[in-house]
Amino acid sequence: MIVVTGATGKLGRLVIEGLLAKIPAGEIVAAVRNPEKARDLAALGVNVRQADYSQPETLSAAFAGADKALLISSNQLGVRIAQHQAVIDAARAAGATLLAYTSILRADTSTLMLAAEHKATETNIRHSGLNFAFLRNGWYLENHTEQLGAAIQHGAILGAAGDGRFASASRADFAAAAVAVLTGSGHENKVYELAGDIPYTLTTLAEEVSAQAGTTVSYNHLPEEAYRSALLGFGLPAEFAEILVDSDLGASKGELDSTSSDLRDLIGRPTVTLADAVSTALKS
């Protein structure tokens, strides 16, 4: 039995889809906070079980019979270490032979604000005695392509990354890597630095959007405070705005760039290109 937490999220659904192409639905557990949102998965024969990271009592039943499990990191910043520990404990109690975890690029050395809880979770998994696979996901292409409408409307992409490069990949790429690890062999106690094949800058992103949209979109580099103010002015929550600012500043220092081929090697194909990601976004 393979258990996938956060199975109704954007990444989780892609992982379930990938697993369904490889193994019988009855061997998959979609562990979700709200089972009502997974009725479509249940209709396909997937085992849907309630699993709330903040309610450890739900996790024992969710992980019953687990052989391998994927812990998709929580999106609740500030409490993720405790939430993830509850999942680790449940996987260990169930006797899982492998716990895969969606971490962040170079979690052990990254200075990004997002990295601290990932690093702590990795440490806790190592100390649990479970066999593990750390899927250190880089930046998602969708982080840059899902809001292109506003950029096209205003003719500008705002950021504070300077000429920093993003070795981004798509959610589908990262999901495919997780599926490969969960359904393959020899991944025990491995650390994978997962990054896209062709890094790009925000200037390159603006040029690609301009070319495909048929209108000029420029990258407008802003100082840290100006970028923060702009994000808050757009109505973003302060915590989320701070993460975006910090991530761009980190990118300017190389934190989101990588030459690792781990992702391409795991999925057995090139990663999704920036051009394809922009094309998909503009058609949606």
From TrEMBL:
Pfam families registered for this protein in UniProt: NAD_binding_10
SUPFAM superfamilies: NAD(P)-binding Rossmann-fold domains
Domain of life: Bacteria
Protein name: NAD(P)-dependent oxidoreductase
Organism: Capsulimonas corticalis
